[in-house]
Amino acid sequence: MKFALSGTFLAVLTASAAVPAAAFAPVSLRKQTAGTIAPNTQVNGRRRYHVELQSTSETANSPAPLATRKPRPPYVPGSIPDPDYVRIFDTTLRDGEQSPGATLTSQEKLEIARNLAKLGVDIIEAGFPIASPDDFSAVKGIADTVGNEVFEDGYVPVICGLSRANPKDIERAWDAVKGAKLPRVHTFIATSQIHMESKLNKTPDEVVEIAINAVTFAKSLGCNDIEFSPEDAGRSDPEFLYRILAAVIEAGATTLNIPDTTGWNMPWEFGELIKKLRENVVGGDKVVFSTHCQNDLGLATANSLAGALNGARQLECTINGIGERAGNASLEEVVMALALKGSTHFSGGPGTGQLYTSINTVHITPTSKMVAEYTGMICQPHKAIVGANAFQHESGIHQDGMIKNKSTYEIMTPESIGLMRGDSQSGAGIVLGKHSGRNAVGTRLRELGYDLDPEKLNSVFKRFKEVAEKKKGGLEDEGLEALVLDQAGSANVLWSITGLQVSTGMSGIPTATVKMRGPDMVERYVASTGTGPVDAVYKAIDQIMGVSVDLEDYSMSAVNEGIEALAVTRVNISPKSGGPNDVPSIHSQGGIFKNRKFSGSGSDTDIITSSARAYVSALNKLLSWNARRTQQGEDDINEETSNVDAVPAEPMAVTEAQ
Hints:
Helices cover 33% and strands 19% of the residues. It is an alpha/beta fold. The protein is globular, with a radius of gyration of 25 Å.
């Protein structure tokens, strides 16, 4: 178990607005329809915007348009009518969820998918349907809902499902996505020598045959949008890539995705690889070339942009750059780089070299925050674009420049990515305390990038009132954001803590008495001992909820200074293998069974209560996931993916509260 204590985990995201922002700021938001611009309205709850962007090269008082986001070209599998248009393929819900501890519930995946649609991504890779019944259900739910929600400009995202190169995987993926208006199947097989010999134990001829059969089978099911990836292409023999890619094009592939699976390539290497493939693969002019770059050397964004420079017109990325190992290319970095430099620095490939996307950048911050909340993976403070410090200025020289002209040190404004900077405390001198109302709390949350539905706002507001009653001086932005994290798992509540008391010290055995309310609304309590107060509380919770898990990570941070600081606790848990809560699923790349990990967050002015809330949040996610598996029953997928029945644990014998 890892244990970490840190100082302030989230900086205040406010700054002076004395000078009008000119760095890449949206100057108008208007509904976009085919060939017309109308006032901003709402149709069936769905909005699309036309965003004009301003240049930092002009003075703050007389900004000039840098670019006007162009309409999205009609979607055609295998080709893009405008050769300057770059499709954004988001794999947050598939590759991003493979990050340890980033397991998402079906409802959380659906909410993220809806935000990705607001953002305007061209393709949403919704998951790996064969991994488990819950994964299949989540992908199907996204395809049937988000994949059919058409914006008034005609945009609807492509919904994609990943599969290995075998008929059962492909059929499962197709069954999951075929309900979408624009379904896609993405299949892959490794092509590097080390993967073919060590992992697949196949000859190159056998790999080519498998790839051809996979694409042919997908096409036979009725799928006309097929993406093929030669896994570990960055370390594969180019001559072999020419051969296998030409073969899958002939079989019916429409998009060729070139993964730098291990993050091995330098940008100039990867760009040259894309160029060679476009020039040498027979039929390459009939497909869209794509990139998928891992961040093992910190070069994922650079490699993706190098691919675009050399003709790749689909870039695969994730929100906040989450994903396997060191993560993926970050969507916000790729998109903003193209927004700022796409029209001037990408000549040499097909088209005029004036590259653009149709991403609605003002939805970057809300989507980033939602992903961070639901996965429990908080961005590092200095993360480009969305980090807490991305628009902070501490140096006196920098502050002086910002006061005089914000473009001296900012190449874009926070407003351009949906972060409303404004004056401190909501620009109206509002201090959020125990007397604040729901409207004041909701307004500040929206300014911080949190677009909560009424039910979630009510949940956060209830916790706000509980904490504000105990905390003098009101809550600052960091504390308010901590409460949002605390309520991120509220949709999965099965058990809740209703009472907690601990006894500890230098002498005597740490003891905790915990009272909880279960799904049957009956309160139960247990007393337990441990090596410390948190350990005692966790053991009592385990007994009441009937779980058997390993605590893999525990961290706590204070969101502000002082004795009344709000504590935020984060935990990662995994079910003990073979235990009552075992939840194995297939890993998309390794093809091995792995137990999922679940994260939880909790906050309170009391560190023991904060720790307990985080632990129960993670356990609720685990039990909710198990309950859905049980409801879906045992079908042939269960038989392939697991030999252990995963069922909700029965509570142990405990005392019911009178």
